[in-house]
Amino acid sequence: MKKFSSRGKCLCGGVEFSTKGFHRDVSSCHCIQCMKTHGNFAAYTNIEDKNLKFQNKKTLKWFKSSKRAKRGFCSKCGASIFFKFNKSKNISISAGMFDKSLKVKTTRNIFIKNRLKYYKIDKSLPKFNRYS
User: Fold this and answer.
1) Is the pLDDT of residue 15 over 80?
2) Contacts of 83 (CB under 8 A, 6+ apart)
3) 2-128 maps to which CATH number?
4) What is the pTM of this model?
């Protein structure tokens, strides 16, 4: 985890936010839900809820993607922005939503059993069939 501040937004700017504090390194998720939501695997960092502040969230909508979690997206441009487990004090943010390159790196691949075969994953990174 690395401590820093950053800003991010969706493609249309309908959801705009800032973060501070500790950001988890990026996990690349290859689960079926991420594939269907992003159109490819998803790359997420993670922070505590209290370290996320919204400058604009008028187009933010939440979709209950399972009994255990929900996903936040922009209802205007369709950007898939957030993933959140119910009752968790943390929120995952799509790494591509940030305005500048984050001071984190990809450190793991999760749900690799579900990955599609048209792309390769970095063999030097740890791989997990579930959450790490």
Assistant:
1) yes
2) 42, 44, 69, 70, 71, 72, 91, 92
3) 3.90.1590.10
4) 0.92
